[in-house]
Amino acid sequence: MMDCKKALVEANGDFEAAVDYLRKKGAKVAASRQDRDSNEGVIIAKATADAKSGIVVEVNCETDFVAKNADFIAFAEKIAEVALANKPASLDDLKSLEVDGKKIADALIEQTGVIGEKIDVSKYETISAEKVVAYIHGNYRLGVLVGLSADAAGADEAGKDVAMQIAAMNPVAIDKDGVDAHTIERELEIAKEQIRAEGKPEEMVEKIAAGKLNKFYKESTLLNQEFVKDSSKNIAQFLDSVSKGLTVTAFKRVQLGA
After folding, report:
1. Which of 10, 66, 98, 197 is 20 to 30 Å from the Cα of 217, by its Cα?
2. Contact, 126 vs 53, CB < 8 A?
C-alpha cells in the first residue's frame, strides 16, 4: 500500500504513470536481487485435456513464506497454463510468451518488484505420449509427468501410481537401455573399487562388477524397480497386469531446488 501511495505521489495522481513507476521500480529491485538465491517456490505439472502431452515448470522465489502464498501459486499456475497451451521449445521461448498481456520475462520482473523477492522460472519440461499423466507431490515441491504407450482402461490410475513411484524412487532412466554410458562406467568403476577393497581376486572383479551393475539397473531404472505398492512385481509387470503391453515411453521428474 505504501509503495502504491508513493507511486501516485510521484506521478501526481496519474494512475497509468504510477503503474509505470511501480514497474520501473520492479525492474530496479530485480536487478538488485539477481545475485540472490531463489531456491524456494512451486512445481506445477499439467496435462492437456486430451492427455496427449504435458508440461512441468518450476517457478522460484526466495522464501517458503512467499512459496505458500496463494497469489504466488496462482501466478505460477498461469505460467504453467501458458506453457501447456503453447508448448514452447525451450525455457527462453516460454519466457518470451505472454501472461496477462505482458511477456512472462517482464511479468517476473514486475512480481519481483511487488513481492520484494527474486522471482524466476528455472525449469521447464514437456513430454508427449499416447497417454500423459501429471502428478504434483508434497505441496508443490515435486512434479512428475509420465507418458504411457496406450490410453488403456485403468491407465489414469496406473499412471498416477507410476508417477508416485518416480517421485519416491527417482529412477535414472526408463530401462537399462536408457542409462547413459558415463553413468554405467561410473557404476562399474565404483563396483570394482569396492570389490578390490574386499580383497577379492582380480580375475573375479569383472564378473562381480557385472552383477553389481545388474543390481543397479534393478534399483535405479523405472521398469525394473520393485513396485512400491506390491513388491512381488516390478513396474513393467505391474503395467502389463493393468493392460497387456502397457509400458512407459517417457517421464520427467522436477524437484524443487534440485
Report:
1. 197
2. yes
Whole-number Å distance between alpha carbons of 214 and 108 = 46
Per-residue pLDDT of the chain (258 residues; tens, 9 = 90+): 555 566 566 666 776 766 565 555 655 554 444 555 668 999 999 999 999 999 999 999 999 999 999 999 999 999 999 999 999 999 999 999 999 999 999 999 888 888 888 899 999 999 999 999 999 998 999 999 999 999 999 999 999 999 999 999 999 999 999 999 999 999 999 999 999 998 998 889 999 999 999 999 999 999 999 999 999 999 999 999 999 999 999 999 999 988
> Does residue 209 belong to any structural domain of this protein?
no
DSSP 84-140: HHH--SSHHHHHHSEETTEEHHHHHHHHHHHHSS--EEEEEEEEE-SEEEEEEETTT
| Structural domain of 26 | 1-32
Domain count, the chain: 1
Cα separations in angstroms, 195 against 12, 37, 164, 216, 254: 77, 41, 34, 15, 34
3-state SS, 24-46, equals HHHHHHHHHCCCCCCCEEEEEEE
Residue 68 covered by a domain:
no
- The answer to whether residue 4 is domain-embedded is yes
The grid cell for 234 is 516390478
CA distance 251 to 183: 18
Instruction: For residue 163, give the nearest of 148, 139, 179, 146 by alpha carbon.
Output: 146
Query: For the chain, what is the largest distance between any 2 Cα atoms, rounded to a whole number of angstroms?
Result: 85
CB 238 within 8 A of CB 230: yes
